[in-house]
Amino acid sequence: MRPKVCDAPNALDLVKELDDATEQMMALGVDQVGTVEWQEAFDRQQRAFRSWRDYLYLKADEKPPAKLLSIA
């Protein structure tokens, strides 16, 4: 049998990109808000956040429904 090929993104890579993108935004001074550099950093951070969010939604859909515990 052939192993199943998994194209799923790596969670560590996604969260690292999100951290790096957020760090890039935070490194900009308040006087740079609205500049081209700020817009590029903002766009990168938003793309990274969407990728991370989509990954989490994908993983949430893979899990079996949780069983509720009955405590009496």
List the SSEs and their pairings.
Blueprint: H1 11-26, H2 36-62
Key traits:
elongated
Largest sheet: none
Mean pLDDT: 84
Structural class: mainly alpha
Beta content: under 5%
Apparent shape: elongated
Q: Terminal Cα separation, in Å?
A: 48 Å
Question: What pattern of helices and strands is seen along the backbone?
Answer: HH
Number of helices: 2
- How many beta-strand elements? 0
What's the helical proportion of residues? Answer: 55-70%
Structure explained in plain terms:
The chain is mainly α and 72 residues long. It is built from two helices and no strands. The chain has helices at residues 11-26, 36-62.
Task: Produce a short descriptive summary.
With 72 residues, the chain is mainly alpha-helical.
